[in-house]
């Protein structure tokens, strides 16, 4: 039984006691060892039979005897004892303590020598093991280590070339400083903390684990928290470790606990916020003293936050910051505004702030005048936050600003914004214009803003900002005018007529050669939205040299010479739309015809027609080709046949007319794409036919309208039909008629089909197509008056209606 007990006790014995046996300098006397534990006794006690044991061991033995129902026995003699009284062996204990102190002093001296000199790895590890042992043995022994100046020596081992030594040194330092503030201060006196931080990035996981455990122990001392945080990169690395998926769990937990301790220092909290750990800062912002709250709000306004973090901050502290805006002093409101400026710059976080009630205090800050008004520099921040919030695209029609149910798009509010725009400095004007840009970017609110601009007569003042020297102000103005141009095109065109310089400024923006910017795309988009048949504006653009610039820009884009891929599509579409203005005023304008010929506009728009994926460009190009083609019948050169003379009347053989070749089949004259804008000569017919299969109805409408010019009055319709046949365009036109995608397409398709069916062979062939007949009948039944007339004639061509119908009065096609 005693043997079993010894075996069990040996397996649970302390490693430090085993290590002590290896460390002794003087020999170990048999009397020092407990017969049960085989370890040096610390509290020897004697039984009634004179046998001596370690108190804890013999008490455990007696308990086991009692638990098993036996009388107490002596573990050595196995004889029954009359008493379990334990008598302290004071003399033996004193002797053991003296022996231990002598051995430890000798070992301490040896450890100092091993750590101070270039000792072997095994000697250094033995010295470190001894330091670990004595610190574990007694907390009071830690001052001995400090007094022996072992802490700097152990710290020096962190630079050892041996990984085993470095790991053991980190472990030893942690044990030395555990629950000992003096030792922590001693260790932090040099550059040791910086060295420990470097271990956080080491490849070896054990070194990282030991380093973070040591830092955790040091971070329990508040004075050292600032020193740890002051090491460059320390907090960044700890934040990364605390969120790591690859580190072991204990390392992650220690890193997290270390960061929690470091939160005692405000500078550390700021660093954590910089590195994405915002919760400590937000906690201080919400729960700290007024001074701390103000400090954290100021710092939050200085941070550069990722979008995810902006959302987190808005959810956590958004309401508190809005409350400060409502009721805080000016210093607190300034800090809150700057923080909200950061948070509001992301759509999702801006919507959270709207729910938190940010709009009413923002608008109040902007509109308040007198003693309670904010300084202009803070009004600028308010305007910036409002611009950020508006760009979120929320439903501002349904968000009240106060008890009077006014909203941000109410006429009075917009009038006030327009008034501020005209009576503040460029910085605020720019932000307020951005507010209007945001509100006019939504189809649900743009009409409210347009109505307010019209009722306030602010059009001229808004256009004047186009000449502003400040780029942000000018760009915001141009973007706003672009947004409202579809609803105020004629008003803006008239204003550009009446003002000097604004049109030139827009053209200068478009002409810039630093890539394609958002400002350029907005400027050309604005001009492209203005009424295309306003010949006065077209003439002014011509005088300003705008069309030469536009043609040059289009050429460079098509040749791939222009940077700025992001805005190239709207920019190119705007260029095409403005250039197409020339095609709307060709009639009775010989100089514009000459310009169109000079730049070969028909060929240019034919090439643009092939830019697949740019629906707007294709639509505008087809519309321009329609306009150009309508002029072909007037511009084609008709050959004049000379009258027959007297001789021809006498000799008929001399009167035979010469055979003329090279005439246009459709226009019966000499045509070219450059001089007469002929679609046939410009090889545009096939490209327009290809557009009839487009998924975008606008492209199809424009392409069909251009092709219909080949069937128009004043040209050879039968030859126009043949041209469409050669280009395989008849079938797609019939398909458009059958699909009935839009009313405009049906009207144009019915018109084209009626012209096509005037050719008997085609009419005969199509008469058997039940789908075409049905589509014409539907148009005859449900179309408008003109469409029904044309559908009736088409049905007669395929014998679906008798020729004597007379349902409608005779009218021209």
TrEMBL record:
Enzyme Commission designation: 2.3.2.27
Key words, A-Z: Transferase
Pfam families linked to this entry: U-box
Alphabetized SMART domains for the sequence: ARM, Ubox
GO function term, MF aspect, one: ubiquitin protein ligase activity
InterPro entries: ARM-like, ARM-type_fold, Armadillo, RING-Ubox_PUB, U-box_domain_protein, Ubox_domain, Znf_RING/FYVE/PHD
Boundaries of every U-box domain copy: 27-106
Biochemical pathway: Protein modification; protein ubiquitination
Catalytic activity, reaction form: S-ubiquitinyl-[E2 ubiquitin-conjugating enzyme]-L-cysteine + [acceptor protein]-L-lysine = [E2 ubiquitin-conjugating enzyme]-L-cysteine + N(6)-ubiquitinyl-[acceptor protein]-L-lysine
Gene Ontology annotations of biological process type: protein ubiquitination
Gene3D superfamilies cross-referenced by the UniProt entry: Leucine-rich Repeat Variant, Zinc/RING finger domain, C3HC4 (zinc finger)
Residue ranges the record marks as coiled coil: none
Protein name from the UniProt record: RING-type E3 ubiquitin transferase
Organism per entry: Cocos nucifera (Coconut palm)
Highest classification ranks of the organism: Eukaryota, Viridiplantae, Streptophyta, Embryophyta, Tracheophyta
């Amino acid at each position: 039984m005693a043997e079993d007990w010894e075996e069990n006790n040996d397996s649970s014995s302390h490693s430090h006691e085993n290590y002590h046996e290896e460390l002794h300098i003087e020999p170990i006397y048999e009397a020092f060892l407990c017969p049960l534990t085989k370890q040096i006794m610390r509290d020897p006690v004697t039984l009634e039979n004179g046998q001596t044991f370690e108190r804890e061991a013999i008490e455990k033995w007696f308990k086991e005897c009692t638990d098993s129902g036996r009388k107490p026995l002596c573990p050595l003699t196995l004889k029954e004892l009359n008493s379990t009284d334990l008598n302290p062996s004071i003399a033996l204990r004193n002797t053991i303590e003296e022996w231990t102190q002598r051995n430890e002093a000798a070992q301490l001296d040896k450890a100092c020598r091993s750590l101070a000199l270039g000792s072997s790895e095994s000697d250094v590890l033995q010295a470190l093991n001894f330091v670990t042992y004595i610190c574990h043995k007694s907390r009071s022994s830690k001052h001995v280590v400090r007094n022996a100046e072992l802490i700097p020596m152990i710290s020096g081992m962190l630079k050892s070339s041996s990984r085993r030594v470095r790991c053991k040194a980190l472990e030893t330092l942690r044990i030395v400083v555990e629950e000992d503030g003096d030792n922590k201060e001693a260790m932090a006196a040099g550059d040791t903390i910086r060295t420990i931080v470097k271990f956080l990035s080491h490849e070896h996981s054990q070194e990282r684990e030991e380093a973070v455990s040591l830092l955790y122990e040091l971070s329990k001392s508040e004075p050292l928290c600032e020193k740890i945080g002051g090491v460059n990169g320390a907090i960044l690395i700890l934040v990364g470790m605390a969120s790591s998926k690859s580190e072991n769990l204990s390392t992650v937990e220690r890193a997290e606990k270390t960061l929690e301790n470091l939160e005692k220092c405000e500078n550390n909290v700021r660093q954590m916020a910089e590195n994405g750990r915002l919760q400590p800062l937000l906690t201080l912002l919400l729960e700290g003293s007024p001074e701390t709250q103000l400090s954290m709000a100021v710092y939050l306004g200085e941070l550069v936050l990722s979008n995810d973090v902006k959302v987190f901050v808005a959810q956590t502290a958004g309401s508190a910051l809005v409350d400060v805006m409502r009721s805080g002093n000016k210093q607190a409101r300034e800090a809150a505004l700057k923080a909200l400026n950061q948070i509001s710059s992301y759509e999702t976080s801006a919507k959270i702030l709207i729910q938190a009630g940010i709009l009413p205090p923002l608008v109040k800050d902007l509109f308040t005048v007198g003693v309670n008004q904010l300084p202009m520099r803070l009004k600028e921040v308010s305007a910036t936050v409002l611009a950020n919030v508006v760009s979120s695209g929320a439903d501002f029609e349904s968000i009240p600003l106060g008890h009077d149910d006014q909203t941000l798009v109410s006429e009075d509010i917009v009038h006030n914004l327009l008034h501020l725009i005209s009576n503040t400095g460029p910085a605020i004007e720019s932000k307020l214009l951005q507010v209007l840009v945001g509100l006019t970017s939504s189809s649900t609110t743009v009409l409210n803003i347009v109505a307010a601009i019209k009722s306030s007569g602010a059009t001229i003042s808004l256009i004047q900002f186009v000449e502003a020297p400040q780029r942000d102000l000018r760009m915001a103005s141009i973007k706003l005018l672009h947004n409202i141009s579809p609803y105020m095109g004629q008003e803006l065109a008239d204003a550009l007529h009446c003002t000097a310089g604004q049109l030139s400024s827009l053209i200068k923006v478009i002409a810039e050669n630093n890539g394609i910017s958002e400002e350029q795309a907005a400027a050309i988009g604005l001009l492209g939205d203005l009424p295309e048949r306003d010949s006065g504006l077209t003439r002014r653009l011509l005088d300003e040299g705008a069309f030469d610039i536009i043609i040059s820009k289009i050429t460079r884009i098509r040749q791939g010479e222009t940077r700025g891929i992001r805005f190239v599509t709207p920019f190119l579409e705007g260029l095409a739309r403005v250039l197409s203005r020339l095609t709307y005023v060709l009639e009775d304008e010989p100089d514009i015809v000459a310009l169109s010929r000079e730049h070969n506009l028909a060929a240019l728009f034919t090439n643009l027609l092939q830019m697949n994926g740019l629906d707007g460009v294709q639509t505008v190009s087809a519309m321009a080709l329609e306009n150009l083609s309508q002029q072909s019948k007037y511009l084609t050169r008709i050959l004049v046949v000379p009258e027959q003379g007297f001789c021809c009347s006498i000799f008929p053989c001399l009167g035979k007319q010469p055979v003329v070749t090279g005439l246009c089949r459709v226009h019966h004259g000499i045509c070219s794409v450059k001089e007469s804008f002929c679609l046939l000569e410009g090889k545009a017919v096939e490209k327009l036919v290809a557009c009839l299969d487009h998924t975008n109805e606008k492209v199809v409408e424009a392409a069909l309208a251009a092709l219909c010019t080949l069937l128009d009055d004043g040209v050879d319709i039968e030859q126009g039909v043949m041209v469409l046949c050669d280009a395989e365009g008849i079938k797609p036109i019939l398909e458009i008629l059958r699909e009935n995608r839009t009313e405009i397409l049906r009207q144009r398709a019915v018109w084209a089909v009626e012209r096509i069916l005037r050719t008997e062979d085609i009419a005969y062939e199509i008469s058997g197509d039940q789908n075409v007949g049905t589509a014409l009948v539907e148009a005859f039944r449900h179309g408008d008056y003109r469409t029904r007339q044309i559908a009736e004639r088409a049905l007669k061509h395929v014998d679906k209606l008798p020729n004597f119908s007379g349902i409608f009065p005779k009218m021209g096609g």
